[in-house]
Amino acid sequence: MRPAHLALAAALVVAPLAARSGMAPERTGDGPGGESGPRGMDSTAVARLFTALRASDPMVCAMATGFVGRGFSWSDGAEGIAALRDEGAEGRLTRERLQSRVGEAAALRQLGPELRSPNACLRRTAAAMLGASQQPELLGMLRRALSDDDGRVREAAALGLGVAEDTTDAPRLRAALGDRDPDVVRLAIWALGSLEDHAAAADIVALLRSPNPGIRRAAAWALGRV
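Above: the chain sequence. Below: its structure as C-alpha cells.
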C-alpha cells in the first residue's frame, strides 16, 4: 500500500474518534493563497482526543494516531474524489485539523504525563506530538524525560526527539546508546538515524554485534541513514 493510502486509512479511522470527542473544525486565514485553512487542535481538543483514544481499541488507536498533530498531509489532490457521498466538508476539515501541527504550547504541555501512560499508543502519540511541536519548552520535557528512572519514559522520549530531528539532541541520544534498557537503546538508534548523525556511526556499527535482535535490526537500519 502506498504511503498516501496508509495515511488516508489512518485519517479515516481517526475522524470518527474526533467527532465523538466534540472537536468541531475551525478555520484560519493561513491556507494556500490566504484562504481559510484548518486550525490545529487547542487544549480542549487535545484533551478530548486523548480521552477518546484511551477508551478505544489498541489496534484502532495505533492506526488512528500515525499522523495526528505532526503536520503531515496525506493529500495527493484526490480528496474530493476519494470521499464518500455523505462525508461532507466538515469531516474532511476535522481530519485536516487532526493532522495539522498543534501550535499552542498549552495544548501540548498537558501531554507530559502521558509519557508515563501504561498505554503504549498514548505514550507514542504524546511523544510524537511533543517532538513535532519543535517548541523549546516542549522539547525540554522530552530531554528531561530521557533521564527518567522509568525505561518506558526514556524510550518514549527518544522517540519524540527522533521526531523532532533537532541536531542539538544528537549528543544526548548518543549517550542513550549506553542505556541499560535495550528498548531505549533501540529507539535512540532510530532517533540518531532519523537525525542522520554521522558522528554516531562507529557506535552504531558496534551495536550490530548486540545480542538483542531489536538493537541489531535498528543498527542496520540506521547505518543506511547516517
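The first strand starts at residue 27 and ends at 28.
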